[in-house]
Design a protein that fits this description.
The complex is a heterodimer. Chain A is mostly helical. Chain A has 13 helices and no strands. In chain A, helix 7 crosses helix 8. In chain A, 49% of the residues are buried. The model of chain A has no long low-confidence stretch (mean pLDDT 89). Chain B is α/β, with parallel strands linked by helices. Helix content of chain B is 30%, strand content 26%. In chain B, strands 5-6-7-3-8-9 form a six-stranded mixed beta sheet, with helices on both faces. Chain B has a four-stranded antiparallel beta sheet with strand order 11-12-10-13. In chain B, helix 2 packs across helix 3 and helix 8 packs across helix 9. The two termini of chain B are 36 Å apart. Classes of the chains: A mainly alpha, B alpha/beta. Chains A and B meet through helix 1 and helix 4 of A and helix 2 of B.
Amino acid sequence: MSAARRIAARELGALHRTGALWAFLGTLGLVQGLHLLAFAVDERRTSERALAIFFHHGAYVMEAAGLVLALTLVVMGTPADMLWRTAPIRAHQRIAGRFIAGAVATGLGVLASMHLAALVLWSGYGSVGHLVAGGVGWFLAGVLGLALGLAGTAFLRRPLAGAIAGGCLLVALELMPMVADRVRPGWRAVLTEAAPVWAHNDAFRRGILDLSDAVFLLGLTYAALVAASVGQEDRRWAP
Amino acid sequence: MPPPSPDGAPAIVVAGVSRFYAAQPALRGVSFGVAPGERVALLGRNGAGKTTLLRILAGVLDPSAGRVQIAGADPSEPDPGWRARLGFLPEQPPLHDDMSVAAYLEYVAELRGADAAAAERVIAQCELGSHAGRRIGTLSHGFRQRVGLAQAIVHQPQVLLLDEPAAGLDPAQTAALRTLLQSLELTLLLSSHLLSEVARIATRYLVLEEGRLVRDFGASDEQEGVRLRVEPASGGPAPHRILVDVVGTTSFEAIDECTFRIATGDRAAVCRALIAAGHELVALERPTSTLSELEAIFGEAAP
């Protein structure tokens, strides 16, 4: 088994053994369920419209959930930090291991958040495709939050400060469309497209699997993971 | 089994290493070498620089100046493969409290590229069999320390670095740790405050004071001769070459490029030849190395 897969298995096992995974899934399922009931479902709306609103706002929740997962994984691993720093493994293997564990937890979180949306489907409204596309959009938003959280914690000494830094970056990206209105037209399109959920979850929330949006979100995630690996390698030498 | 270090090379070379935390010096121009198989104790009071030096050797801290080589590798090199030849137990053992002892050691063995039986072997070696299935978070301090040592040796390293391995252990646990360390066939560098234990484990002692190496002596120096340290001149024949010319290849031991162990009877001739070649003699030591001498260095109290 490769080092990254071994680390991923350990981290996922740790999430399970400490109860953090179940607390995460329960909280996420509850928050998303309440969100659907409170904001999305309205008797004047069609089921498609309700699901679209649910999957749009829920994507922001998934980004936050990814950040929380990153913070949890880093805090859990801190006491044994010296283990990887003295082991013959590279920083990117450790980051990949943590990311894989977090991505699996994010995937489970998406499934745990689908219970009320599935009830909509079970009642004869909406479609399986809409739920799948919305779930994919959520997953991509979640792993982006996770990767940005890992990047922040890799660069800063305190995990909480790192997760907050990752969150600030995410918020800054999501606010880009507001900045876009105030800049020259040449930059406007670029800045508008930088917002992960605002600009790249639109197709998913409407039940369409858009490959270009998936590529953008995965590309941003990959860039964050590369940054995390660089930061982690530098931390190997930190006092 | 990890690959051996290059033949004849010292297991550890520390050459002019300094380390500063902001403007505060933790190590100042420390130089020494450790031969393969040697057991060396790093002594000094709190804040003397022991932990900083061990962290630099373990490759988790970079020196502000100077050069380090350990197990045939420069710790700063990008390829981390050399770490398979190193075992390190820091002051706080790097443990995952949520895992069982056996699962944790299997995990560490796999990360360090050891064979499948390594975890079972080290569990028996460290007498952890009765606790193998227990969660690490539920173990006493003594057993946590033992698991920490097990993770450092699970992959059978060539060089083992231990930072206060006996801290907080009761007498029985300390004796068990000593027996275990005496049974290991590797190069050992450990820091400890327990002078009586150090005297039983180590064959050589390095004393740090305010970041400087102030004493370097061995348990058998009186029998084996004297230790000579040289500041080489920029030109002319190297110190090593002069020693070969004066006493022959078999009558001295090169600890590193600048430190040699020579027979007591040769010291006058060697010193004359080195000075004539322009080299500076930094130290010529023939200490006795006993527990009483260690206690004399540090006074009644442990360092």
